[in-house]
Amino acid sequence: MPSPRYFFNHFMPFTGYPYKGGPTVCNLCGSGETVTVAETDRRLKTLKSIACAQCGLIRTDPMPTPDELAHYYAHAYRADYQLAFAGGPPRHHLNRSAREATFRADLLAPKLKPGARVLDFGSGSGEFLAAVRARGCEAVGIEPGRDYAAYARQHHKVEVLDDASDERFPPGHFDVISTHHVLEHLRDPAVVMERLSRWLKPDGVLYAAVPNMAATGKPPHERFHFAHVHGYVRETFDLLARRAGL
Q: What is the spatial distance between Cα 206 and Cα 31, in angstroms, rounded to a whole number?
């Protein structure tokens, strides 16, 4: 169970998060010109978000360092945002993930033929991997969250890697690559999208989903929180894909 200090650091309104970070330029276009778009997040904690004045990509400022992000996602993210204090995924997450996995597998069904190679980048507790393997596909996941990756291996008997460099898979290896609500969590989303594009077959399909920062169903401040270090609208998401050659 997390300590009282953990709850103070991550839930107490009008206080900052426990990280130092540093300044960055836009990960998409390289510009350093910015406009501030928010100074608090959905918990009313202090969190500055800026938009690139050139392309519009939103990012956290200061940006957490690679080590800070790696530690957060490996040890704190699931408890912080899904209340998974016992280590493994809670029941409500598993039910929602199973429904979403079925929807995603049905959507991609034309490409999910027996023997197809499928990568789920950010595979969580493994429900999508299990769904595509049930269709006869060769499935592998990448998931840095240790507890959820362990759950996927144990309960779904699927292959899940902690991470994967450019050299892990040859170019054109996968028929289908899926990344569901992952790119908003990444410090270098443009680099990752280029990597996924290289791993995809020329006639393959890459499924990618992120929250829409232009959505109007919530109050503006609720679109920001520490776990999402980048924010997209349709135009910047299209730019991200085009930069990767998609």
A: 27
Question: Among 156, 161, 111, which Cα is nearest to 135's?
Answer: 111
Taking each helix axis as running N to C, give the angle between helix 234-243 and helix 189-199, from 0 to 180 degrees, rounded to the nearest 10: 50
Pick from 72, 31, 13, 78: nearest CA to 229: 72
Rounded Cα distance between 168 and 165, Å, is: 5
**Separation between Cα atoms, residue 84 and residue 90, nearest integer Å:** 6
Nearest CA to 80 among 23, 12, 22, 163? 12
Q: In this structure, what is the dihedral angle of CA atoms 198, 142, 75, 24, given to the nearest 10 degrees?
A: 10
Q: Please give the DSSP secondary-structure letter assigned to residue 86.
A: T
Peptide bond into 62 cis (omega under 30): yes
Judged on CB neighbours under 10 Å (0-12, 13-18, 19+), 168 is: middle
Q: Which long-range contacts (CB under 8 A, 24 or more apart) does 131-136 make?
A: 131/101, 131/102, 131/104, 131/105, 132/105, 132/108, 132/176, 133/158, 135/105, 135/109
Contact indicator for 20, 69 with CB cutoff of 8 Å: no
Other CB atoms within 10 A of residue 150 CB? 16
CB atoms within 10 A of CB 148: 26
Backbone angles phi, psi at 177, to 5 degrees: -125, 135
Q: Which residues contact 246 (CB under 8 A, 6 or more apart)?
A: 193, 197, 206
Instruction: Give pLDDT tens digits for 125-184.
Output: 999 999 999 999 999 999 988 888 999 999 999 999 988 888 899 999 999 999 999 999
Quote the pTM value. Answer: 0.89
